[in-house]
Amino acid sequence: MSDRTAAVTRETAETEIEVTLDVDGDGDATVDTGIGFFDHMLEALAKHGLFDLTVDCDGDLEIDDHHTVEDVAITLGQAFEEALGDKRGIRRYADRKVPLDEAVAEVVVDVSGRPFFEFDGAFAQAQVGEFTSHMGQHFLRSLATNAGLTLHASVTGENAHHQVEALFKALARALDDATRIDERRSDTPSTKGEL
């Protein structure tokens, strides 16, 4: 198996971002976005997905958290797309349901090359620290769009911290499962021959 790694940069008038990703890592993360809770979520994504991840983002936080969260998701999505290449041998589909105290999140993913996102749920509080709760949903949408994922997600609960964290952990486990190599497969998992 070749290295499934990527290094992606993005620079706009709103953000400057550098991301490195190793899909077959150990769960090591070095993250600095300027938003403490978002850093915690990205670290959880790496830890529970066993991805090695670095994210360095200098964003316009004097405005709000939107551009930083969205642009990190875009860049990370591009990194997954690059690292997975032709997707030869991957399992492709996965679903995970993850609880965190009273909250439960479910993520169903198809590494299809066809971006689609569906979300069901509402966050119990508008903010978690400096992180706008709705940006958890927007992160998933932006990641799916740029990684070429069909991604369905849902969440219930009474605490937005728990809800968002459960979503990131469910995403991590589903992505890890879907991107794993199936030793029985030597081709791309599609009757079309490509994804």
Structure description:
The structure is a single chain. The chain has 195 residues and is α+β, with helices and mostly antiparallel strands. The chain has a single domain (5-179), classed as Ribosomal Protein S5, domain 2, CATH 3.30.230. 34% of the residues lie in helices and 30% in strands. It has 4 helices and 10 strands, in the order βββαβαβββββαβα. The protein has helices at residues 36-49, 66-84, 134-147, 160-179; strands spanning 5-11, 15-22, 29-32, 52-59, 93-100, 103-110, 116-120, 127-128, 131-132, 150-156. A 4-stranded mixed beta sheet has the order 1-2-4-3, with helices on one face. Helix 1 (36-49) runs parallel beside helix 4 and helix 2 (66-84) runs parallel beside helix 3 (134-147).
Uncertain segments are: none
Q: Please, what is the oligomeric state?
A: single chain
- Total number of domains: 1
Q: Tell me the span between the first and last alpha carbons.
A: 18 Å
Q: What fraction of residues sit in β-strands? A: 25-35%
**Which CATH-level-2 architecture?**
2-Layer Sandwich
The CATH topology is given as Ribosomal Protein S5, domain 2
Please give the order of strands in the largest beta sheet. Answer: 1-2-4-3
Treating each run of at least 4 consecutive H or I residues as one helix, how many helices? 4
Largest sheet: number of strands, sense, barrel closure:
4 strands, mixed
CATH class: Alpha Beta
**N to C succession of SSEs:** EEEHEHEEEEEHEH
Q: Please, what is the average pLDDT?
A: 97
State the fourth-level CATH superfamily. Imidazole glycerol phosphate dehydratase, domain 1
Gross morphology: globular
| Rg over C-alpha atoms, rounded to the nearest angstrom | 16 Å
Give the helix/strand class: alpha+beta
Approximately how much helix is present in the residues?
Answer: 25-40%
